[in-house]
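Section 5: illustrative case.
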């Protein structure tokens, strides 16, 4: 049943003989409704639950409907507000807290002003999990930094997408901007694992079509470094392909130790029955040995050069010297009969 409180109370006073009094508070066992009218400032108290009383004030009418505003009351009662501004604060919220769960395209901003304070999610004493679900953006429009897990934590883990069964995780570089994405940029000794757990993984690095520049262990190291590729003790077939695609344009070049510093290149040097194939039988295929000395098992050296060989070149019995300039049948090839001694080989005219 609706309530209509329109009467005006009159009382005796000291300054005025008769004066208007504030309307009496309405006590009921329910909340006020749209047809419950009162005087401006009229209060309504719901006494249905004495432990948690709820209080309203009458704000007027709008097209035949009463407008009541709920007031914050003691005892931990709830309050409903159309807007709320607290200046300067502070604000403390305890218990289960829900922010912006209504359907729609509302925006939720936390710490988005031009302040210099700290935004913290969770703390060191929190032993439960924090969940960010659905579509969540953590970014900074200004020239600033976004830090996750930068405190002096000594144990624990930071997991991003660890429970995903599908979807995509993107870190940096998805927009039209430039910049750098660094993983483990600190100077302390660290171990960085990528797809190290069991399970078949497909790992793509710089698979784009824009002429990528991929650098691996390219720093000017000041201490010894080791770069291993598929060097584990495999228990099944292991295939490593380098420049194995069939290109449609341009020239393919594979460079191994092309710098000016002396080094050693080992191919198939393990103690196993390796089969090493260099070149193919395709017409025009060439294998070029640019070194003036070729070593064969023995050891036996094979030399090339213009003119007769100097005796000092003969280091082993069986060393072979092939002249690259014109010579007679007895001047085209030489074989070492002892260290420092050559004898010519007569060739067909």
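Designed sequence:
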């Amino acid at each position: 049943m609706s309530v209509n409180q329109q009467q005006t109370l009159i009382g005796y006073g000291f300054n005025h003989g008769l004066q208007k009094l504030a309307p009496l508070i309405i006590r009921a066992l329910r909340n006020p409704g749209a047809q419950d009218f009162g005087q401006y400032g009229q209060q309504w108290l719901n006494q249905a639950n004495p432990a948690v009383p709820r209080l309203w004030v009458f704000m007027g009418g709008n097209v035949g409907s009463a407008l009541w505003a709920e007031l914050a009351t003691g005892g931990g009662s709830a309050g409903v507000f159309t807007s709320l501004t607290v200046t300067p604060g502070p604000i403390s919220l305890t218990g289960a807290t829900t922010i912006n769960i209504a359907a729609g395209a509302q925006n939720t901003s936390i710490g988005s002003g031009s302040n210099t304070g700290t935004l913290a999610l969770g703390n060191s004493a929190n032993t439960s999990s924090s969940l960010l679900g659905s579509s969540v953006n953590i970014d900074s429009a200004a020239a600033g930094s976004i830090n996750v897990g930068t405190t002096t934590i000594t144990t624990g883990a930071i997991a991003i997408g660890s429970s995903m069964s599908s979807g995509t995780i993107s870190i940096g570089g998805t927009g039209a901007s430039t910049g750098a994405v660094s993983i483990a940029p600190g100077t302390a000794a660290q171990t960085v694992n990528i797809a190290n757990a069991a399970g078949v993984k497909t790992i793509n690095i710089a698979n784009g079509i824009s002429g990528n520049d991929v650098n691996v262990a390219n720093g000017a190291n000041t201490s010894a470094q080791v770069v291993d590729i598929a060097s584990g003790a495999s228990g099944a077939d292991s295939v490593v392909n380098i420049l194995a695609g069939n290109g449609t344009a341009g020239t393919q070049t594979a460079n191994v130790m092309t710098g000016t510093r002396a080094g050693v290149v080992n191919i198939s040097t393990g103690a196993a029955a390796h089969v090493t194939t260099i070149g193919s039988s395709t017409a025009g295929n060439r294998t070029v040995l640019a070194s003036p000395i070729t070593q064969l098992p023995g050891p036996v050296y094979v030399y090339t050069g213009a003119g007769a060989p100097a005796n000092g070149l003969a280091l082993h019995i069986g060393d072979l010297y092939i002249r690259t300039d014109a010579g007679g049948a007895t001047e085209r090839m030489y074989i070492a009969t002892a260290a420092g001694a050559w004898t010519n080989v007569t060739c067909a005219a």
